[in-house]
Specification:
With 470 residues, the chain is mainly alpha-helical. The protein is built from 18 helices and seven strands. Helix 4 packs across helix 5, helix 8 runs antiparallel to helix 9 and helix 9 runs antiparallel to helix 16.
């Protein structure tokens, strides 16, 4: 397929660009249908890097973004054509081009603005692409169609099918609130809005697990500078090994523990064993909005985890993030993403999963170890929210209860003092290392009596430091 047509500023006398814009606008104005909003996105590479296969079709590709994928096209194109014949045969359509493709061509100006990038090609190619993929999809969705739905209103018919599909595949309970089907752009959009209604607005940035930039402590930067200096002096190699070991002990552990960034909340086991928190299944059906904590009890909604749940979760989260980032009208927050971040936080190992499964909060076919891997492998997003969501308030209450436990307070204070002592030790070691390296440099620079006198002076007055090389 041709490359994506990016919008660039025209140069002086760029008549082809002017002609293209004039034709595009004229065509779109001539179509008596409101242009739907942008709602079909290319997933950012930073999200795809976590698990590329979760965002790419594995069996067949539909639409301009995936129809011509090499690994799928050769295997599925004839199957698509067979499905097309199966769909149109009962209707005895003699001319597919005239009765289907030409009609689709007339609405391409309405369809194209739904995509964040629409590939360059002629309208005939797109008309046939959508005709083939659309009829193939109708064939695949035949399992969801009622035999006696002939007299049903088209809108009610498709809304009932979307609802049925969402109920069968959603990991969450769907909202009982009626969805305005006139504003539904596609199946993923319908499933998302059936799961959660967004109210909190925010600016969204995408982050890999552990990709939140962290400012290094000054002591760590100083120690790194000493190590780099030691690497330039052959005689300082024994001391270099000591410094590198010290850096690993003091700093690498902290980096490893923060490799997966998530909502800061204790695990289920920690909250139960240390703070006496109870986890119970929510008694009503308000879905992921209904996470509350009161009187020592945390109420959580049910989530069903099966073999395909991770793919559905990742695509729902990507859709939410991209709509929040690109929607000019607002109305999109990060409630679903926050919920998944919360689950990543409270699930550390199989013991946590077992507790939630016993309370029927977690259901489905995935094994405990697979669930741990699922939530530990999903990276979080950094959202600058313009308010505090109900879930964040619940997390704050859980943290407050946990932090007020005497043993936790004592442990936190001990860790604080240990970090302060480590910084002081690092500073002293860095200074001593600098002096030792200076001594080594003087020794190697010259063997003269004057140089040796300086070395002896340093050794006598800073014996505590020079003794480190003996």
């Amino acid at each position: 397929m041709a490359s994506v047509n990016s919008f660039v500023a025209p140069t002086t006398g760029d008549q082809p660009w002017v002609d293209q814009m004039r034709k595009t606008l004229k065509t779109q104005l001539a179509v008596p249908i409101d242009t739907p909003p942008l709602s079909i996105f290319s997933v950012p590479q930073i999200l795809k890097d976590e698990k590329p296969e979760a965002y790419e079709p594995q069996k067949f590709g539909l639409g301009p973004k995936h129809h011509f994928r090499t690994e799928l096209y050769s295997k599925m194109q004839q199957n698509k054509l067979t499905a097309v014949k199966r769909v149109i045969k009962p209707y005895q359509i003699p001319d597919l081009e005239d009765q289907v493709a030409e009609r689709i061509k007339s609405i391409i100006p309405v369809v194209s603005p739904c995509y964040d990038s629409f590939p360059e090609t002629d309208e005939d190619a797109f008309a046939w692409l959508f005709a083939i993929d659309g009829l193939f999809l109708l064939d695949q969705l035949g399992v969801y169609m009622d035999k006696d739905a002939g007299g049903q209103d088209a809108k009610d018919f498709w809304e009932s099918k979307f609802r049925y599909f969402a109920e069968k595949n959603s990991p969450f309970l769907l909202s009982k609130k009626n969805i305005d089907f006139d504003r539904v752009n596609h199946l993923l959009c319908y499933m998302y809005h059936s799961i959660v209604d967004n109210e909190v607005l925010g600016d969204v940035a995408f982050l890999k697990p552990g990709s939140i930039p962290e400012e290094k402590p000054a002591t760590e930067e100083l120690l790194e500078a000493v190590i780099q200096a030691a690497g330039l002096i052959p005689g300082a190699k024994p001391f270099l090994g000591i410094l590198e070991s010290l850096e690993k002990i003091l700093y690498e552990t902290d980096k490893e523990t923060s490799a997966i960034q998530e909502i800061q909340v204790p695990s289920v086991s920690e909250l139960i064993d240390t703070a006496g928190v109870k986890f119970v299944l929510s008694t009503n059906e308000e879905g992921i909005r209904n996470i509350t904590f009161a009187d020592g009890t945390c109420n959580l909604p049910v989530i069903t985890l099966n073999y395909d749940t991770e793919v559905i979760l990742r695509n729902l989260m990507a859709y939410e993030k991209l709509m929040a980032k690109n929607s000019l009208m607002g109305g999109f927050g990060l409630e679903l993403t926050e919920y998944v971040d919360f689950m990543c936080g409270i699930i550390d190992d199989a013991k946590d999963v077992k507790v939630l499964r016993e309370q029927k909060i977690i259901q489905g076919d995935l094994r405990d170890e697979q669930i741990v891997k699922l939530f530990n492998g999903i990276g979080r997003s950094l959202g600058n929210m313009s308010g505090q969501s109900n879930l964040r308030k619940t997390v704050a209450e859980l943290n407050k209860v946990y932090d007020n436990v005497p043993s936790v307070r004592i442990q936190r204070e001990a860790e604080k003092q240990a970090r302060a002592a480590a910084k002081a030790i690092t500073f002293l070691v860095s200074i001593s290392g600098t002096l030792v390296l200076a001594r080594e440099a003087l020794v190697q620079a010259s063997g003269s009596d004057a140089t040796q006198s300086i070395v002896n002076f340093v050794s006598e007055h800073f014996g505590v430091f020079s003794s480190l090389i003996h």
